[in-house]
Amino acid sequence: MCGIVGYIGDKLAQPVLFNCLARLEYRGYDSCGIALKGSRLRVYKDVGGVKELERTAPLLEGTAGIGHNRWATHGEPSQANAHPHCDCSGNIAVVHNGIISNFQQLRQQLTAEGHRFASQTDTEVIPHLIEKYYQGNLEAAVIMVLGDIKGSYAIIALVVGEDKLVVARKGSPLIIGLGDRDNLVASDVTAVLDYTDRVIYLEDGDIGVITANSVRVTNGGTEVSRQESRVRWMVEDAQKGGYEHFMLKEIHEQPRVIRDTLIGWGSLAESAVDLAAMCREAESMVMLACGTSYHAALIGKHIVEELIGIRVRAEPASEFNYCHPVLAKTAAMVITQSGETADTLKATQKLKAAGCKVLAITNVMGSSASRLADYTVYTRAGPEIGVAATKSFMAQLMVLYCLMLSSTDAKASRLADLMAGVRQLPEKAQQVLNNESRIEEYAHHLSGYDNAFFIGRGVNFPIALEGALKLKEISYIHAEGYAAGELKHGPFALLRKETPVIAILAHDNTYEAMLSNIKEVKARQSPVIALVEEGDKTVGKLADYVITVPQVAPLFSPVVNTVALQLLAYYAARERGCPIDTPRNLAKSVTVE
Ligand code: AGP
């Protein structure tokens, strides 16, 4: 949600903080701020993005500081609500990601004790509590504060008079980047890649005291040793690399992502052993996730049912958390790019409490999902910066295909065909990208509408959901994904010349029904853009526009259809002048319920 960063070392902290904040901007971007510790504390913050703040900020001295990108939860985006927040004396500053659930009660108490608050945020109670407990030792004061606050947090605190940052983590991610003569702290590793590839992933309950040349971590009052890890991601992975937007770069990276997953199949196969064992013992499987990852789960359901032959329930984690008793003999899979989505983590906890073994598919090493789950499979997407999930979704699909192909007992001839098909997917995805200029033309056309429907059946129903999600989140065109057969049960009332329908077809048992659905839509005057495989001779006679994708086995059609729909959404949003990488009101990782 929010992004936090801290620096202490031998460099001027201000440019480092701005650079780290710019890399973390995808986590939140309605306001931002920094606090620098020189001979006194200086805070500079405002609504808007990092670049704007950097342009207007005076040069603040100091080689230690903290920074924050905000995604508003408590109080509107405003200068007062932007972080860092300070105590009454202005000597203590704090940045925080998470939610302090008992802040109102604490605020009342502190107000009665004479503390004056400047914002509507939950966070502001923290510097005031530190002020209340501070007796010359920031670490000791923070430990006392943690006894008072409830909720989730990643916190970085600093105080004039002590050359250290004190950090704490519970339920929100926090890493320490280890430098030579300096150290950094951040919500995730992409923030520190310009400075170091050596990181420590903090655990829940950890409190860290960080100076320019030392890191000490305690948990429950005992000093603990947290392993140093090398980050595989390169700094170039988190840069635009000449593309106009991260999203476009990430769409174009998908053939590489597919290839990397296939190359890493060997290590996936080890997870498949766990999965196969899980499935053998289980009577059913549940797949849980949110947003785009939920769409991957819906496709996963098709893949598992077809290749493994057990019944799968795929549900939004946010709904699962409030219904259904969990059956103990359920194999469970959670899918989350960030590994930090609050609803997905809560679902994981619920599954574990019911005695289920959970396999997590995530893109982020050391993420909360990987800590909670019994088994973790890491996707090979690399860092995804655009808020709209693209290559991370593709990487999830590829993991699902590979895991299930490794676990299936399908007939040898069918398996051989599928194996041959999956190996061609990097090239097939590239072929869709080669058709980019044609898709851009259709997107230009689509960009003029205010509403659209996406329809599909079978394994392409989730692709209709995903196509609609991509279009609405980045272009702000209202789009609905629908099971094609459901359209006539209500949404037909909305069909007219101004309501285009994007129909996604595959040459499987849904094809004939889809043709009928297209005819029904056309009879209501709606323009139809059809997505169909090359060589199809029928759909062109029915639809107004046809986007062709390369031929693949129907089970793999989500791969090529996804790339085409991502490009369609991207170019429609570009035509409408939308802020594609940072759509309004959204954040890359949603760490609140
Ligand atoms: C989609 O483009 C979004 N970024 C969003 O729906 C996302 O997939 C969802 O918030 C889940 O995130 P996760 O994969 O990190 O759990």
Describe the structure in your own words.
The protein is α/β, with parallel strands linked by helices and about 600 residues long. The chain has three domains: about 5-235, Glutamine Phosphoribosylpyrophosphate, subunit 1, domain 1 (4-Layer Sandwich), CATH 3.60.20.10; about 240-425, 3-Layer(aba) Sandwich (Rossmann fold); about 425-580, Rossmann fold (3-Layer(aba) Sandwich). It has 20 helices and 25 strands. The strands form four sheets. An eight-stranded antiparallel beta sheet has the order 3-2-4-1-10-9-11-15, covered by helices on one side. Strand 2 and strand 3 form a beta hairpin. Helix 7 (about 255-265) runs parallel beside helix 13 (about 390-405), helix 7 runs antiparallel to helix 15 and helix 17 (about 460-475) runs parallel beside helix 20. The longest helix is centred in the last third of the chain and has 19 residues, at about 555-575. The protein is globular. The model has no long low-confidence stretch (mean pLDDT about 95). The structure holds 2-deoxy-2-amino glucitol-6-phosphate. 2-deoxy-2-amino glucitol-6-phosphate binds near residues 290, 344, 589 and 590.
